[in-house]
Amino acid sequence: MKNRIPELRAERAWTQADLAQRVSVSRQTINAIEKGKFDPSLPVAFRLAKVFNLTIEELFIDDQ
Amino acid sequence: MKNRIPELRAERAWTQADLAQRVSVSRQTINAIEKGKFDPSLPVAFRLAKVFNLTIEELFIDDQ
DNA sequence: CCTCGATGTCAAGCACACTTGACATCGAGG
DNA sequence: CCTCGATGTCAAGTGTGCTTGACATCGAGG
């Protein structure tokens, strides 16, 4: 499961801490998701898609 | 997080066990997701959306 | 009745999502 | 240089996603 969070976050000039606050998770969680350490839960995925105004399918790439 | 799995599964006349096999989880997991006991992981959510030919947003309703 | 498939549910265990707290590194600017 | 914000990462703890195995219930058909 890849994702476009790093580029989208950079476009908006948000730090990992900024984004973490916007989706109500810790900074380390954002870092881990960006780095592919693990996939977010479905609720966190929904919140991430929302702050970027994208669908989950547009934000996350399911590479089976 | 609500979902339309029960109705969609009924439309197709699939048992919980049928659906479980199609998305590679246990029957109990399908039952728990349908019953709202917990939310699926993002990979399982992707697989569920795929077997129903829907987007995750169409299949799951984020009631924050 | 009695069976049988489908569903609901519990327990125990494992893996992972997420937390707080801490520390290391790195680049930009004084 | 030195600092400082941003990022990367580790450890330890909590909660949840998912498993297997078991058992109870329920409705449809013999």
UniProtKB/TrEMBL annotation, chains A, B:
Q: Which InterPro entries match?
A: Cro/C1-type_HTH (IPR001387), Lambda_DNA-bd_dom_sf (IPR010982)
SUPFAM superfamilies attached to this UniProt entry: lambda repressor-like DNA-binding domains
- Put simply, this protein is called Putative transcriptional regulator
Supply the source organism for this entry.
Thermocatellispora tengchongensis
Report domain HTH cro/C1-type positions.
Answer: 5-59
Which N-terminal residues, if any, form the signal peptide? none
SMART domains found in the cross-reference section: HTH_XRE (SM00530)
* GO molecular function ontology, one term from the record: DNA binding
Q: Does the keyword Ribosomal protein apply?
A: no
Q: Which Gene3D superfamilies match?
A: lambda repressor-like DNA-binding domains
Pfam families recorded: HTH_3 (PF01381)
Alphabetized, the UniProt keywords read: DNA-binding
